[in-house]
Amino acid sequence: MTSSSPPSLLDLKSLLPEELRTLVRQLGQEEYRAGQLLSWIHGKGVEEVDQMSNLSRAFREQLKARATLSRLREVERQLSPGGQAIKFLFELPGGERVESVLILDGKRRTACLSSQVGCPLDCKFCATGRMGFIANLKAAQIVDQLLQVGRALLAERGERVSNVVMMGMGEPLLNYEELVRALRLMRLEHGPAIGGRKVTVSTAGYVPGIRRLAREDLNLGLAISLNATTDELRDQLMPINRKYKIAELLDAAAEYFSLRGRRVTFEYVLLEGVTDADEDALRLAELTRGVPCKLNLIPYNELAEDTPFRRPPADRIARFRQLLENHTPMAVTLRESRGRDIDAACGQLYQAQERRRRAAPAG
Q: Mind telling me the catalytic residues?
């Protein structure tokens, strides 16, 4: 006789309201208990089922037999000297590590979250790309970044997260199901209550995911990392372009606007001598002319380790921006990296931690 393996436990943090209602019904409880669970998990951020003090002991024991409540372990936290950014490094149960950043900008309190450990896309200027792909995050692990960052902000400043950007480690649209589940959980009134207009998903240009996301009812912002104005250069910098060319990417962006009514943001990293020429500015204006969009220029955030790329000087950045503004009706912004002094580009804190771990004496 072959013994069957025990059923895997549900992760309460990943369950949507209807799924929680189903669970409490299966356990013989009233449906309103699902709302209590949501409040404890996503509102109060409890770490253990036994902390849910308005649930009976018998119900808590039932829950523990069927489900668990996962949590990332905070490994490191860095605060920028200017106080504009806080970087978090979290550890997953298997020992993998993932980053989140809290960006403090005027009245906005933006949590920048990761969707993968590492990234499979190998963009040549990205620290996360150097890691390669390690793992997809579960919806609960994406949400837990927001919950922990939010608790830290509330404890230290008495403030709440106002915005979410999926611009951390990984390509969100390659972890689509878990991403969308996490985004739905973030909207819950019992928890962070981050509405769609306060959320932006960033992609390196995974066209099937863009088209699929356009058909969701989430009303999200979409940011597309363009970073080059010719297929030849983009093929070199962002290998995903070898499969999804610029023209197809622009078409998907136009479709997103037509279905969702929201302008996409094209992000463009300025690399000295690579993407910052006058001709690039003129081509960027021409390429995006037919797509309702915003253009966000990002001067390169140099890696701590050796890299062939450099940040352009201030006068070159200013000229590129001025040329672009002179030749496009679209809004042009310049995003200065907050927290350049705390390894705040995606993957940098992870890389710094790994270097310290390798350098540490054994034993």
A: 99, 346
